[in-house]
Amino acid sequence: MINLRYHIVSIAAVFLALAIGLALGSTFVDSVLVSNLESRVDQLQADTESAVERRAAAEEALSEAETARDAALANVEAVRLGVEDLVRPHLPEGRLTDHVTLIIAPETVDRAAVTAIRARLEATDARQGGVLWLSDDLRLDDPRARRQIADAFSLAGDSRSAVRRALLFLMPQALFRPAEAGSGLTSTADVAAVPDAATFDGFAPGFSSLPPTRTALTLLRDLELVTHDGTGAVALHRLGGEHLRLVVVTDAAASGLNQDFVFDLLAAIADDGHGGTGVIVEVPAPNATSPDVGTVVARVRSDPVLAESFSSVDDAASFSGDLALLTALERLPAVHHFSAADLDHGLSPP
Question: What is the pTM of this model?
């Protein structure tokens, strides 16, 4: 028989235990939560104080940096003024007005180096002739190139020696005597009057009657033997004359073209009576695995004709080399050789 009183007491005990457990549990949880919250508040307060300290330190460092910057700027300005005083006697201000500067360079030369030199020249008061890029085909090893040149210039023969001698006669003339367009030879008598004319294997009459926009240089351009980068510069068919100044930029990697054409062209210009009209600038070869700057200018300076006819500058990328290039141009027709072996490139007030 079920004892109802027993069950009532049991149920009451269960509810009593539950009530006691809830009361104790809620008290414990509240205590833990409060403790955790207080701990987090303390940590946030500490982090805030640390952030304030770091901000103060950063502001102090910024103030010191600004002070140092101002001092550095003042020093730079003082140095700039000092450099201007040092450099001003060398700058060709107002002394290149009547000249046109033309850069001549093998196609393989570092374009960035040529662009930098061109920018320096554009900062002068000289008129700009742009850049005349020389193809390696001017070495005349290719029979097809020789035939094209012989046809374009009405040469009687296309042997390597004949074409080479013709170019070395025509190009100096086109550069410094453009009024005598092309070969300037209109008859057999004219040919005979030219020294060593027989070595050209003859010129056909009529080449000088070409339109004025067709010169020896434009014909070479049409044959893709030269390229004229003349943006903002004197047009190719208008280049040339007694006031032309050449800046020949080359490197050791172009030794083949230098030896087979460039040096001979410079010698021909000197033989044509136009020594003291250019500066030879050597730049590092692209992707050079070892320092090779100096071999080109050494070759020029060891040649009795070139050394007396053209100025030279090595290490043109340096500040003093940059200055030496401008100085060398301004001092033409006097010939000077500026070397990085001298701390100041051998510069002295003119």
Answer: 0.68
